Amino acid sequence: MAIRSKLVGLTAVAAAAAVVLTGCSSTGGAQTQSSTATAGSGTGSAGTGGGAVADTPRLTIAMVTHETPGDTFWDKIRSGAEAAAAKDNVDLKYSNDPQAAGQSTLIQNNVDAKVDGIATTLVTPDALAGAVKAATDAKIPVVGFNSGIDQYKQLGALMYFGSDETLAGQTVGQKLVDNGAKKTLCVIQAEGSVALEARCAGVKDKDSSTENLQVNGADIASVQSTIQAKLQQDPSIDSIVTLGAPIALAAIQSAKDAGSSAKVVTFDLNADVAKAVKDGTISFSVDQQPYLQGYLAVDSLWLYLTNGNTIGGGEPTLTGPAIVDSSNIDAILTYAEAGKR
């Protein structure tokens, strides 16, 4: 696909993106949904920025995720994407499937529809490689976000927006060690997710006491009972690391039911987790700023297609880790309640 002519009156998007408020969350399951957000009329944050819509030619950009509906993390991804689409005169085609084969099919469907650009998560890179190659062979630019930081280049994606999950895990592990953790449980809620596995590997790199626990994130009741059973089996566990906000809330109840004093820390943030950080129920959260990931994924494709821009200098653009704890929760809570953190 040829790069389009330079935008007349191009806004300083890079500066705007820098101030947009700063995980990969995955809960498994088998549901699919799709929607379209159009400039000035989308849902969520779309059309609420107050600025003029770009006067560039109308573009169609597809966003394909491995999301299971109902997770507040993905609501923020989509909200950010819709805000960028509204500003950029983009017709946003949003679709999702938590199964690798289904996500691959959605990418291929957008290739067949000849969209102008594709933004996709790469949580199962091997399974998605063929569909991504079909896009790049068709000269459709692809950017990765949220998952696949170590694989996006080899798959042919131009840019990547997300957290370095290994670095984020190491940050958590070091903070736990500094806080005196003796035995840590790292809860993985989606089997086979490279991002989630990298988080727990990073934690263990700094906190060698870490043990992984696999749970079925699509069934919160099962998550709660599995963590509770583990805590009852091993009362030496004094720290629980969860990899998504809903799992953190389940872990709090698990510890209570098990009579455990284990402290909970989590990746990712929503309003409930922010309140739990505020009241001390959760020690701290690691925010990868999903709103920003969705926004930049769409905005970067618009900049590339209309002005030939790339972001990151050939390296991933990191949106995290950002630690949210007692030192900054008062400021962050407002943004979390607004659905942007």
TrEMBL record:
Record keywords: Metal-binding included?
Answer: no
Kindly state one GO CC term assigned in the UniProt record: outer membrane-bounded periplasmic space
Gene3D superfamilies (UniProt xref): 3.40.50.2300
Judging by the UniProt lineage, the source's domain of life is Bacteria
- Coiled-coil ranges per UniProt: none
* Molecular-function annotations in GO: carbohydrate binding
Q: Which residues form the signal peptide?
A: 1-30
Q: What compartments host this protein?
A: Cell envelope
Residue ranges annotated for the Periplasmic binding protein domain, each copy included: 61-306
Q: Where is the composition biased (Low complexity)?
A: 27-40
Keyword terms of this UniProt record: Signal
| InterPro entries the UniProt entry points to | Bact_Solute-Bind_Prot2, Peripla_BP_I, SBP_2_dom
Give the span(s) annotated as Disordered: 27-52
Comp. bias (Gly residues): 41-52
- PANTHER family reported in the protein's UniProt record: ABC TRANSPORTER PERIPLASMIC-BINDING PROTEIN YPHF, D-XYLOSE-BINDING PERIPLASMIC PROTEIN
Tell me its family. Answer: Belongs to the bacterial solute-binding protein 2 family.
Q: What is this protein called?
A: Sugar ABC transporter substrate-binding protein
Species this chain originates from:
Nakamurella flava
